[in-house]
Write a structure and sequence with these properties.
By secondary structure, the chain is of the alpha+beta class. Strand 7 and strand 8 form a beta hairpin. The C terminus is likely disordered.
C-alpha cells in the first residue's frame, strides 16, 4: 500500500523532531479509527514549531455515490404490497426515516428487517431508486473530524481554503499573515518527503508502551508534553 500520510517540518533543524514524528502517528491513527483510508488520496501536514504553525492539506478521493434502496434492501412485490427487506444494517436508520417520510403510518412492520409498503402507493421500480443516504456528506464530516484531531487544541486561529479535491487548513495560536500561507503553498508545490521508517520505529514503540495517544485526544500538543 502506498504511503498516504506525510508530515514535514518547515524548520530544517527539526525535520525529524518529536512533534513531527508524533503528528504522523496521530494522523495515521485518526485515519484508521475513522475508516478514511479510501476517502483520502493524500494527507500532508507541515509544521513549524517556531511560529507555531500547523498546516494540513487533504487531497480527497473520488466522491461517493448516493445509497439507494436497491443498494441496501431487497424489494419484492406481493399481493399485500411491496416488501422491503433490509440487507445492510448500517443503513437501517436512514431507510426507516425515508420510508416513514414517504409512507407514514401506512407502513406495516413485520419484524426488524422487513416492512410492507401498501400496494399502489408507489411502483416498486421507483421505490428501488429512492435515495436512502448520502455517504459523501457523512464522509466529509469524518474527514473534518480527522483534521481536527491532528490540529493541536489551542490553535484556534484558522485559515481554510478549498479548491477542487484539495482542502487546506492552517492553524496557529497567533494571527496568520499572508506570508505564512504563501510559504505553506510553496512547500506543498514540492513532492512530499517521507519520514524514513527507522525514524518512526522508536516513536511507535514508545506510543504503544506509554499509551500516549489518549493524551492527544485530551488536547496535549506534540511539542508540549
Amino acid at each position: 500500500m502506498s504511503e498516504k500520510v506525510f508530515v514535514e517540518s518547515l524548520d530544517p533543524s527539526y525535520q525529524y523532531g518529536y512533534g513531527v514524528l508524533m503528528l504522523k502517528v496521530i494522523a495515521e491513527h485518526a485515519l484508521s479509527e475513522l475508516s478514511l483510508g479510501g476517502a483520502l488520496e493524500e494527507l500532508r501536514i507541515l509544521v513549524d514549531m517556531r511560529k507555531p504553525l500547523v498546516a494540513v492539506r487533504a487531497l480527497l478521493g473520488p466522491p461517493l455515490p448516493p445509497i439507494r434502496v436497491m443498494d441496501c434492501a431487497r424489494v419484492q412485490e406481493a399481493a399485500d404490497g411491496i416488501h422491503v427487506v433490509l440487507l445492510d444494517e448500517g443503513q437501517a436508520p436512514f431507510l426507516a426515516k425515508l420510508l416513514r417520510e414517504k409512507f407514514g403510518g401506512s407502513l406495516e412492520q413485520l419484524d426488524r428487517w422487513e416492512v410492507v409498503v401498501p400496494a399502489g402507493a408507489m411502483p416498486a421500480k421507483e421505490l428501488e431508486r429512492l435515495v436512502v443516504s448520502h455517504p459523501q456528506e457523512r464522509m466529509g464530516e469524518r474527514i473534518m473530524d480527522a483534521l481536527e484531531r491532528v490540529i493541536p487544541v489551542g490553535f484556534r486561529v484558522r485559515y481554510a481554503e478549498r479548491e477542487g479535491n484539495s482542502l487546506l487548513i492552517l492553524a496557529s495560536e497567533n494571527p496568520i499573515p499572508d506570508g505564512w500561507v504563501e510559504e505553506v503553498k510553496e512547500a506543498l508545490r514540492k513532492p512530499p518527503s517521507p519520514i524514513p521508517p527507522e525514524k518512526m520505529e522508536g516513536i511507535r514503540r514508545k506510543v504503544e508502551a506509554a499509551e500516549i495517544l489518549p493524551k492527544f485526544k485530551e488536547g496535549a500538543m506534540p511539542w508540549r508534553l
